[in-house]
């Protein structure tokens, strides 16, 4: 995947997509290295390589167990210097949580390390400098906010300084979750805001 020839890189990304789908192997450190290489390729200059690497990572999200995917994305992508890599990480975390459901993260029976990683990373990405990263982080947090245990879990895990930095965003997300009155042709009806 680190070849300078674009067709070799694209073929490697496509092969990884199929390996995630068929093998579902998460042996360390090979799995971590492959995912990190794919994350780096999401910021490539060639749009076809970006597309293939994103498709391979989407395949990882679909077929690899939740805790392995979250662990490697949080370790490798959330603190990367490139904003495109952080955006891809935020998008993938959002997809993971939406596919598996907020219960798989926030229930009492859920993996505590995975819960901590998702909540800390979502708080960090809410304060990111890149707009697209923040948009995906907002989707993630808004989806998690629908769960009854979100508030207690979030405030137990995230430190006060980070919460102060993102308090306005959290308040706006809370207000979006409340029902909105929609005025249409003089009739009022309540619909959830999404």
From TrEMBL:
Q: What GO CC annotations are associated with the protein?
A: basal cortex; cytoplasmic microtubule; kinetochore; microtubule organizing center; mitotic spindle; spindle microtubule
Tell me the first and last residues of the signal peptide. none
MF-aspect GO terms: microtubule binding
Please indicate which superkingdom the organism of origin belongs to: Eukaryota
Which Pfam families does the annotation name?
Answer: CLASP_N (PF12348)
GO process annotations (BP): establishment of mitotic spindle localization; mitotic spindle assembly
Q: Which SUPFAM superfamilies match?
A: ARM repeat
Name the InterPro entries on file.
Answer: ARM-like (IPR011989), ARM-type_fold (IPR016024), CLASP_N_dom (IPR024395)
Coiled coil: which residue ranges? Answer: none
Q: Which residues form the CLASP N-terminal domain?
A: 2-143
**Which protein is depicted?**
CLASP N-terminal domain-containing protein
Origin species: Diploptera punctata
């Amino acid at each position: 995947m680190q070849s300078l020839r674009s067709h070799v890189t694209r073929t490697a990304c496509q092969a990884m997509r199929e390996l995630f789908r068929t093998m579902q192997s998460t042996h360390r450190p090979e799995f971590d290295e492959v995912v990190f290489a794919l994350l780096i390729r999401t910021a490539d200059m060639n749009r076809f390589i970006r597309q293939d690497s994103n498709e391979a990572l989407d395949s990882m999200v679909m077929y690899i167990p939740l805790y392995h995917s979250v662990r490697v994305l949080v370790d490798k992508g959330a603190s990367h210097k490139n904003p495109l890599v952080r955006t891809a990480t935020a998008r993938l975390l959002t997809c993971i949580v939406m596919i598996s459901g907020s219960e798989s993260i926030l229930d009492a029976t859920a993996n505590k390390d995975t819960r901590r990683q998702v909540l800390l990373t979502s708080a960090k990405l809410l304060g990111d400098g890149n707009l697209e990263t923040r948009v995906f982080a907002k989707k993630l947090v808004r989806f998690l906010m629908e769960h009854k245990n979100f508030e207690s879990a979030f405030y137990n895990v995230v430190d006060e300084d980070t919460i102060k930095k993102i308090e306005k965003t959290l308040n706006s997300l809370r207000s979006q979750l409340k029902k909105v009155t929609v005025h249409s042709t003089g009739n009022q009806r309540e619909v959830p805001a999404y």
